[in-house]
Inverse folding.
């Protein structure tokens, strides 16, 4: 079946070759095309060295700095609508945590010790925790989305792919750029960048960029001022770059800092059991808030706060992310470059969980200080304060890149160490029939006493305040290498690449909080990942390729259990065939890739919620085959008009998915019932842009349409009773921008733009959590239709 599928994909990829050949011949015979109207080359570092996008035998989407600037892409969560088979969703209750999936592989666990399935890199430095993956992107040179396992060159936890963020280098000439924007919901920002040019002869140059951003929020919480409504944010970001050119040695230093305070998106209860619905709906009769449960996005709500670890009643959360990257390159001879990449990063988060979806609810709860053993008290479906959550990491990578004859190579060594911890104070109410209190350990005599002293009371709440505290360390060492052979006898048309990486991991963890005595564990792993690829230039500007690559996601120790629960790494082997092509004097670019990924030892998280709060069990219980394709097209039909589009498809076929039935303790294979996580089957994007000179200025109009099919947030209905109500349905987004650019302003130039997003005002469920054992499920929704204006000036 695998060979038949790949043969079919290969057949589809070869179809354009006849068109390619005739296009090349027509271009040679006719009048020369106008060079200024072609698409130009895109430089990427998908193989850890600079190459053009069309020369790299890897499925890559690259977004350039000018495009990022005009589209106001401010965080990794903005990228998926322009990149097929990529999902990035910001997680509830956090200002900086994200769930990232590529081609059906990723990780949704936000804890400070959980490994990612998609590697995120900033200026060559790995960002180990998804809890700190959302931060303001200012002054990026480009964003690269690498699809498929990248285990050879990028290492562990890139089993689904990698997301590379590359900062702009300091400019050689002095310059100042400033930009400001204002939009709906009082969403505004102002930022500036200063390039010093060379400040020490022709040796050292620097840049500094800073941004302040604020928003008043887009859901009205009647309990707070607008500055603390859900979606409100105040963020400050700084980026510093230094570059020194000392002959054979080049030094680049980058510093980034992001400090944000605000209220995460409103987490709305969308479904509840009849028992929970009946219990919380009685709140107004006890002087509490009305109970809101509705599957449709609300605009005016009540959302309770929480008393934090310092004793302050708060609604807002806060995060701080900062990092340092130092890259030193030494070129002793033109054929050899020795490179050192040193990274240090740290992350801090203090989060009010805000997962109740309601105001201050009141209800009858068990209370041994009351004469009737029951009293009316504040109750909550789920809330808390996760603080402090913190992590720091150090990494060191050494590379040797060179060329000997027809062979180019990259060899390297890598070291990584991190320490992370979090302390989560939770608050929740267990709702149950009075007769069921014995299940929580209440003596039958107490249960009988509650029934006798409270005639007619059938349902009661039990307030619980579990503490979940854990932490750990992670140490990883690797050696790797990759060689490519391009025989000059074949005019460099053929390239054969082989690569491998050996990794050793060592992890420790402790479980504290309500776990007594403190549990400690240690686990070690090793892995060899490899790559083999073959590419061939069939005709000029048309390359076909095939590759087999492997990768792995590190195992570990589950932080959300009451005992040491270890699990082994996940492993993937991906088979990919593709075409990179440019036609009509580079007016038309078409890149297509088809793939099959065999994914073993899938880490299955069986989520649970009860008196211990949000807990889970992780086991290696799955095998899955993922197959699909991506196609990306960019065309310039005529000067000034560009069309770009993409389509991605992912088919998920679980081979095994083991589940232990808690009622019978029997291990079942439920592969036929398992759902793909955070992965739409189809993702589509279509963009069109027209630009036209107006005197010395340029008028630009762009529109973008993107659509993805439904997304599941839980694999099994039997572990998530509200799974069907939590489906994120098929979603469409339309955005547009009209700008006038390059307006002369004294010695500078001015760009002014008007933009709109979610122009169809769709109410899209974006993230869901099933608290089944607590009797409810909730979700966050997208931002309503928004629009605004921005202006940028350059000197």
């Amino acid at each position: 079946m695998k060979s038949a599928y790949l043969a079919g994909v290969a057949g589809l990829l070869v179809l354009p070759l006849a068109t390619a050949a005739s296009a090349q011949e027509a271009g040679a015979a006719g009048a020369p095309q106008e060079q200024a109207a072609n698409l130009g080359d895109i430089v990427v570092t998908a193989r850890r060295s600079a190459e053009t996008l069309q020369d790299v035998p890897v499925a890559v989407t690259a977004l350039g700095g000018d495009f990022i600037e005009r589209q106001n892409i401010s965080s990794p969560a903005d990228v998926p609508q322009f990149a097929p088979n990529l999902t990035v969703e910001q997680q509830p209750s956090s200002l900086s945590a994200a769930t990232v999936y590529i081609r059906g592989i990723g990780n949704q666990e936000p804890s400070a010790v959980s490994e990612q399935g998609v590697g995120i890199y900033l200026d060559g430095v790995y960002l180990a925790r998804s809890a700190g993956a959302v931060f303001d992107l200012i002054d990026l040179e480009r964003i690269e989305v690498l699809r498929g396992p990248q285990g050879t060159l990028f290492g562990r936890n890139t089993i689904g792919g990698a997301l590379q963020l590359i900062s702009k280098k300091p400019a050689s000439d002095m310059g100042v750029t400033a930009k400001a924007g204002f939009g709906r919901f009082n969403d505004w920002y102002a930022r500036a960048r200063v390039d010093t040019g060379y400040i020490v002869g022709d040796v050292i140059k620097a840049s500094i960029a800073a941004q302040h951003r604020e928003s008043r929020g887009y859901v009205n919480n009647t309990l707070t001022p607008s500055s603390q409504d859900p979606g409100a944010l105040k963020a400050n970001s700084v980026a510093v770059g230094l570059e020194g050119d000392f002959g054979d040695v080049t030094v680049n230093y980058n510093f980034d800092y992001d400090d944000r305070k605000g209220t995460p998106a409103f987490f709305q209860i969308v479904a509840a059991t009849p028992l929970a619905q009946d219990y919380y709906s009685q709140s107004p009769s006890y002087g509490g808030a009305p109970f809101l449960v509705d599957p449709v996005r609300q605009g005016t709500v009540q959302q309770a706060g929480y008393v934090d670890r310092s004793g302050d009643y708060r609604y807002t959360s806060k995060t701080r992310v900062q990092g340092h990257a130092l890259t030193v390159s030494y070129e002793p001879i033109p054929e050899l470059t020795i490179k050192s990449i040193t990274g240090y990063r740290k992350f801090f988060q203090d989060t009010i969980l805000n997962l109740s979806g309601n105001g201050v609810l009141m209800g009858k709860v068990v209370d041994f200080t009351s004469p009737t053993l029951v009293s009316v008290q504040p109750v909550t479906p789920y809330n808390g304060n996760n603080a402090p959550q913190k992590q720091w990491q150090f990494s060191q990578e050494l590379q040797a890149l060179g060329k000997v004859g027809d062979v180019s190579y990259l060899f390297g060594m890598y070291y990584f160490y991190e320490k992370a911890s979090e302390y989560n104070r939770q608050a929740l109410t267990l709702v149950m029939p009075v007769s069921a209190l014995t299940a929580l350990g209440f003596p039958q005599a107490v249960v009988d006493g509650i029934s006798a002293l409270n005639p007619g009371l059938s349902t009661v709440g039990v307030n619980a305040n579990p503490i979940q505290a854990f932490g750990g360390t992670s140490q990883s060492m690797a050696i790797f290498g990759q060689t490519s052979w391009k025989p000059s006898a074949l005019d460099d048309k053929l390239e054969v690449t082989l690569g491998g990486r050996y990794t050793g991991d060592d992890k420790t963890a402790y479980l504290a909080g309500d776990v007594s005595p403190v549990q400690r564990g240690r686990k070690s792993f090793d892995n060899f990942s490899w790559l083999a690829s073959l590419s061939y230039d069939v005709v000029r500007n048309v390359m076909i390729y095939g590759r087999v690559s492997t990768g792995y996601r590190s195992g570990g120790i589950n932080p959300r259990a009451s005992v040491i629960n270890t699990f082994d790494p996940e492993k993937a082997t991906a088979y990919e065939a593709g075409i990179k092509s440019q036609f009509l004097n580079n007016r038309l670019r078409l890149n297509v890739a088809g793939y099959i990924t065999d994914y073993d030892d899938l880490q299955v998280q069986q989520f649970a919620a009860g008196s211990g709060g949000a807990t889970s069990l992780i086991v290696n219980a799955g095998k899955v085959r993922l197959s699909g394709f991506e196609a990306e097209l960019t065309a310039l039909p005529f000067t000034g008009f560009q069309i770009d589009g993409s389509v991605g498809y992912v088919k998920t076929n679980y081979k095994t998915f083991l589940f232990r039935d808690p009622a019978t303790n029997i291990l079942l294979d439920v592969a036929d019932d398992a759902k793909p996580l955070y992965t739409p089957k189809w993702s589509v994007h279509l963009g069109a842009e027209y630009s036209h000179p107006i005197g010395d200025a340029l008028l630009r109009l762009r529109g973008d349409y993107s659509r993805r099919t439904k997304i599941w947030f839980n694999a099994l209905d039997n572990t998530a009773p509200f799974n069907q109500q939590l489906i994120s349905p098929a979603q469409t987004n339309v955005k547009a921008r009209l700008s006038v650019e390059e307006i002369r302003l004294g010695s500078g130039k001015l760009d002014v733009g008007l933009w709109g997003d979610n122009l169809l005002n769709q109410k899209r469920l974006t993230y869901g959590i099933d608290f089944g054992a607590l009797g409810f499920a909730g979700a966050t929704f997208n931002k309503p239709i928004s629009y605004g204006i921005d202006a940028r000036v350059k000197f």
Remarks:
- The first strand starts at residue 43 and ends at 44.
- The mean pLDDT is 91.
